[in-house]
Amino acid sequence: MEKLRTAALACCLACLFMACAITAYAAGQTGEGEVFLEELNARYEEYQARFEAIETVEDIGQNGYEIIQGQTFPVVMESFGEEEISFLAAFDVNYRRLAVFLADGEGNILYKTDRLETNNRILGQLEQPTREMAAVSFADVNGDGLTDIVLITKCVNDTGGYAGKAYKVGDVLFQGDGDFYRDWRISDKINRFDMNKNANCIISYVRDGCSAEFLYTAETLEELLQNGFSIIEEQHYTRNFEKLGRLQVVPGVFRISEYDIFMVYLVNAQGNIVWRFQPMGDYDNLYSLRGINGRDVDGDGMKDLIVFGRYSYEGPDGHIQVDSQCAIYYQRTGGFDIDTEFSKYYQCTEEDTMEVLVQKIREYWGWQVEETQE
């Protein structure tokens, strides 16, 4: 297992240095690039030395980590013995990198790792966008009789197209013989196909094989239906989307664990999927669909798609909360662009209706002439 840890560290360093070397080369400053890489190497070695120095719970704070309050749990990990031990999670205060620890009753660290999916959001960078621990769950997810650890974090990027928007990152630590290991392929699918909304979704996928992958890879409506997609018939209709032609608007859900993943598809006359949307974002579940409207709202002569729904999620206190959200997809020549501005300008409420929202969106764009629907 130590060889695996060494190999993982070597791979991590290789990716880190490759990304930074590309940056230095692109800048065209060979001398400055070498200095930058040396500084980065020194910073990483300092960070790694602090992590490796942690041998007791007391060492965690002394080496620049802050234990996350409310995320410390007594657990029994079979390969570590029959006695309860403590699970702890902590953030490096300089770089927001997450680490997890298992400690015995005397405070000695039995196991520790920072080889986590959430610490690889920005390759080639020590500082990561992880902001908080969203969930921790303990269950045997691979059927070997050993308790595994399911982790979900919340991240927020400071830059880029997704800057300022919170998103979740799921991960699984599989228990081995006095150690844990990760399967990057499983973690990749959990996050790429939005099965990271809560621990139950992750467990349903890893343990039971209930996968939402088809929602993002299916090419036809028939394929969706064969895999368990359920159409919301009252909002299922046909619209002429100018450049894209006459298309079915097909909203529906796929149930994983006790949650409904909500998707909307545009399907042509041959039954092929032309476009797909996920209006619920990082919410856990579709609570109710208030309406879907195909109408030009930005005044460019092409029909846009407005999806108004209510979505539920588990709040910090464990109680279910519900938000009303309006997603707008503006039709462009080659497809659709998701709105990023109106949602900052106006926050939907439970009292809103689709007609009220459409008028507000049109007013936002400075065009209040009502359009005749088909």
Straight-line N-to-C gap: 64 Å
Structural class: alpha+beta
User: The biggest beta sheet, please?
Assistant: 5 strands, antiparallel
- CA-based gyration radius: 24 Å
Unreliable parts: 1-28
Q: What is the typical, i.e. mean, pLDDT?
A: 89
Strand content: 25-35%
Q: Please tally the helical runs, counting DSSP H or I stretches of 4 or more residues.
A: 9
Helix content: 25-40%
Label the overall shape.
globular
Strands, total number? 18
SSE topology string: HHHEEEEEEEEEHHHHEEEEEEEEEHH
Gist of the model:
The chain has nine helices and 18 strands. The chain has helices spanning 2-27, 30-52, 57-62, 184-192, 199-208, 214-217, 221-226, 342-345, 354-364; strands at residues 65-67, 73-75, 85-92, 98-103, 109-113, 130-139, 148-156, 166-175, 180-181, 230-231, 237-240, 246-256, 259-267, 273-277, 285-295, 304-314, 320-332, 335-338.
